[in-house]
Design a protein that fits this description.
By secondary structure, the protein is an all-beta fold. It is built from no helices and eleven strands.
């Protein structure tokens, strides 16, 4: 069992930056990938970014390239999403997720942290 807890959300102004954190605990293994997802009001959940077990960013959705950065600090069992120049359409609940080693499945999810971007 793995538990994930996102923090860092809140209300921000368009153009501002925010860093989300995801603290992992439980039965962690050494080769797990992590992803950040978001779900905007009335929209389906989408993957925002993914980072490999060895700290290589392996995916960004096109709309965030150059503005968002995913990273991890395994000494702290924490994954981050640095979000710069936020746009109003990026208002969403942001989730982190744990990808089971050797699988494409995201087995464990956090509860989410809400980011509201206003004008």
């Amino acid at each position: 069992q793995v538990q994930l807890a996102e923090t860092g959300g809140g209300m921000v102004q368009a153009g501002d930056s925010r860093r989300l954190s995801c603290a992992a605990s439980g039965d962690l293994f050494g080769s797990y990938n992590m992803g950040w997802f978001r779900q905007a009001p009335g929209k389906e959940r989408e993957i925002v970014a993914r980072i490999t077990w060895n700290a290589i960013p392996s995916y960004y959705i096109d709309s965030v390239k150059g503005r968002f950065t995913i990273s991890r600090n395994d000494a702290k069992d924490t994954v981050y999403l640095q979000m710069n120049s936020l746009k109003t359409e990026e208002t969403a609940v942001y989730y982190c997720a744990y990808q089971t080693p050797g699988s494409l499945q995201y087995r464990y999810w956090g509860q989410g942290t809400q980011v509201i971007v206003s004008l």
